[in-house]
Amino acid sequence: MGVNMLNDKMHAIAKTIEEVIIHTLPVEYQLFLFEGKITLGDIVGQVLVECCKYA
């Protein structure tokens, strides 16, 4: 398995996590959460790190 293949899979997983967050969390909560404190990318990155940590 090449590095690019792994990167492509990680990008696909990150996109899926983003979509789940956007479609699952209530809009009001998203507005509160992302009002300059952290970004959606921050959360996705942390989820990926936690998944890798326990893989």
Structural overview:
The protein is mainly α. It has one domain. It is built from 3 helices and no strands. Helix 1 (3-24) crosses helix 3. 78% of the residues lie in helices and 0% in strands. The protein has helices at residues 3-24, 27-33, 40-53. The mean pLDDT is 87. It is elongated and about 40 Å long.
What kind of sheet is the major sheet?
none
Fraction of residues in H or I helices: over 70%
Structural class, from secondary structure content? mainly alpha
Residue-averaged pLDDT = 87
Radius of gyration, CA atoms, in whole angstroms: 13 Å
Elements, N to C (H/E)? HHH
Segments where pLDDT lies below 50 for 5+ residues?
none
Overall shape: it is elongated
Would you count the extended β strands for me? 0
Distance between the termini: 17 Å
* Secondary structure tally, helices: 3
In what range is the share of β-strand residues? under 5%
Oligomer kind: single chain
Quick structural gist:
The protein is an all-alpha fold and 55 residues long. It is 78% helix and 0% strand. The chain has helices spanning 3-24, 27-33, 40-53.
Short descriptors:
single chain, mainly alpha, 0% strand, 55 residues
Topology at a glance:
Elements: H1 3-24, H2 27-33, H3 40-53
Helix pairs in contact: 1-3
